[in-house]
Design brief:
Helices cover 61% and strands 0% of the residues. The protein has six helices and no strands. Helix 1 runs antiparallel to helix 5, helix 2 packs across helix 3 and helix 3 packs antiparallel against helix 4. The radius of gyration is 33 Å and the shape is rod-shaped.
């Protein structure tokens, strides 16, 4: 089982990337045709919509699940798909080649962030857990318990720690 620490800088970054994934995914779902036209990839609108659904699912996974690492690897894999798809549209025959280059740069930047976050999450997991110390052989006493029995029976009790006479228990008929 993986150790998971909430509110580390890596976890906050992963949750921020989760919200970004949801926002990007919704935009791809809603405006797939417009995005495809902007990049000169009109025939790829359905694929952009599918990538949007993947982004939303990954974002929800990052926000809802305990361990963000598998979902971050999902983001990196999705980035690789996005880069491969965009690379096919970055050719001389595409009149919107500059827009594809812009999208390639944006996806490459997000891939770098995803890889940084994943590395931070793995580093946190590798350095955070240490096995608990074994204190089963310790008693908390300076000597063995048998040697300590009765050691304080003759110790004088200071006056301010003595029980007041009115609170002392006296058995019936002791007068």
């Amino acid at each position: 089982m993986a150790y998971y620490r909430r509110n580390s800088s890596a976890d906050r970054m992963a949750r921020g990337l989760g919200w970004f994934s949801i926002g990007l995914g919704v935009a791809e779902l809603v405006a797939a045709r417009r995005l495809a036209r902007w990049m000169g990839m009109e025939e790829q609108a359905g694929l952009i919509r599918a990538y949007g659904a993947r982004e939303v699912a990954t974002g929800v996974g990052l926000l809802a699940m305990g361990d963000a690492r598998p979902w971050m690897w999902g983001r990196i894999s999705g980035d690789a798909l996005d880069l491969a798809t965009l690379a096919t549209a970055h050719h001389d025959g595409n009149p919107r080649r500059e827009n594809v280059a812009t999208a390639l740069g944006a996806v490459a930047a997000m891939t770098a962030l995803d890889m940084l976050c994943t590395a931070m999450l793995h580093r946190d997991e590798a350095t955070a857990w240490t096995p608990p110390r074994d204190y089963s052989d310790r008693s908390g006493l300076p000597r063995p318990p048998a040697a300590m029995r009765g050691a304080a029976k003759d110790a004088p009790i200071p006056a301010d720690m003595r029980t007041p006479a009115i609170l002392r228990f006296e058995p019936a008929g002791a007068n």
